[in-house]
């Protein structure tokens, strides 16, 4: 008996190969406007394909390991894009990591969470999730953000919002310890805190569809790696166009970080919203909070190591406006997650905070 492949599956299988071909044809060249547009489309397709194959692998290993696979895959893309844009140096390179990580945190904690709460509550009236697991994840994200993004503004060893080498090493090590500790809790000790709860029967975990075969999983793993390589290379080709486009529309150069975060998180946003509409809001929160955590806990250490070879300062400290938005997000997020259930009101609150972040990024 043969299984019929859906058009989505065929497209996801072809895109990484096509993206690698596009990379081979454009590497080392300066593409014109038309080719830049084509590369942008291929890059977006490669990101979508990467996350699709990460979802296949995630489905095979099950929750909450699946959300971890997706978060790590997205973070690899994010780190690659950041370092690619930092290598040439120039204006805005020193603060690019901060701008991108902060944008990822605001997009996940407000944009993705808000959309998922709204999508789930509009369909089911009220959405349920595990407050224990989600609250622990938010606490870890808040600690990571405070240590890596807020403290540099107030340290005195270096002028400006910058860590000294010793402080940066401590922040990177602390980020890895916190992230590893959370993963251990999520996948070993307290897995039940991160499994879905249905609205029909609170306390009963949702069942999953049949997992893919081992052969399909290994195929997706190979295509995932190919897509990630293509994303890294095509980002290098596309990076001058991203910065030129931001300047052309008159936005602050820091908005480049927002563009990067939106690019890498767009597919994951779709996955999280689909989970919410299937009455699996806990998976949506795992994706959102896990991505925010990985964005700080893995990106900051990777950038800290990269600074051994990169020239120039690394500005990590947030400004006053960003600090206020982060504080408000953590407070509101705590109030949202503590009850273990939410309505469309909480979704709208988070979406308004996300709108405020985007507006103030354009018009600081």
UniProtKB/TrEMBL annotation:
Annotated Gene Ontology cellular component terms: plasma membrane
Keywords attached to this entry: Membrane, Transmembrane, Transmembrane helix
A GO MF term: sodium:proton antiporter activity
Subcellular location: Membrane
Topology in the lipid bilayer: Multi-pass membrane protein
Residues in Sodium/calcium exchanger membrane region domain copies: 35-187, 220-362
Pfam families per the UniProt record, alphabetical: Na_Ca_ex
Record-annotated membrane-spanning stretches: 7-28, 34-53, 65-89, 101-124, 136-154, 166-185, 214-234, 246-266, 287-310, 316-338, 345-362
UniProt-listed InterPro entries: Alkaline_pH_Ca-Antiporter (IPR052946), NaCa_Exmemb (IPR004837)
Main location group: membrane
This protein's name: Ca2+:H+ antiporter
Organism: Longispora fulva
């Amino acid at each position: 008996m043969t299984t019929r492949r859906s058009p989505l599956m065929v497209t996801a299988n072809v895109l990484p190969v096509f993206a690698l071909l596009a990379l081979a044809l454009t590497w080392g060249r300066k593409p014109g406007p038309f080719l830049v547009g084509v590369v942008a489309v291929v890059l977006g397709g490669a990101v979508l394909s990467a996350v699709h194959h990460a979802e296949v692998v995630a489905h095979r290993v099950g929750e909450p390991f699946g959300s971890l696979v997706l978060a790590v895959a997205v973070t690899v893309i994010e780190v690659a894009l950041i370092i690619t844009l930092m290598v040439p140096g120039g204006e805005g390179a020193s603060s690019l990591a901060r701008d991108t990580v902060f944008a990822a945190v605001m997009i996940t904690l407000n944009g993705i969470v808000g959309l998922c709460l709204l999508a789930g509550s509009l369909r089911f009236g009220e959405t349920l999730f595990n407050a224990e697991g989600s609250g622990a994840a938010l606490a870890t994200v808040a600690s990571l953000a405070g240590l890596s993004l807020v403290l540099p503004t107030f340290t005195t060893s270096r002028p400006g919002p910058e860590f000294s080498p010793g402080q940066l090493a401590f922040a990177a090590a602390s980020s890895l310890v916190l992230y590893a500790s959370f993963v251990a809790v999520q996948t070993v000790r307290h897995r039940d805190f991160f499994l879905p709860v249905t609205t029909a029967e609170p306390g009963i975990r949702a069942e999953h569809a049949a997992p893919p075969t081992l052969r399909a999983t290994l195929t997706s793993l190979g295509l995932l790696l190919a897509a990630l390589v293509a994303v890294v290379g095509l980002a290098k080709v596309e990076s001058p166009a991203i910065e030129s486009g931001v300047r052309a529309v008159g936005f602050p150069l820091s908005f480049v970080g927002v563009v990067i975060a939106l690019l890498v998180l767009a597919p994951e946003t779709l996955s999280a919203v689909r989970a919410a509409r299937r009455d699996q809001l806990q998976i949506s929160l795992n994706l959102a909070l896990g991505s925010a955590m990985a964005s700080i806990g893995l990106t900051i250490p990777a950038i800290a190591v990269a600074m051994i070879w990169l020239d120039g300062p690394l500005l990590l400290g947030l400004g006053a406006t960003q600090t206020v938005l982060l504080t408000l997000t953590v407070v509101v997020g705590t109030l949202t997650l503590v009850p273990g259930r939410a309505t469309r009101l909480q979704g709208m609150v988070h979406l308004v905070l996300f709108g405020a972040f985007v507006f103030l990024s354009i018009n600081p």
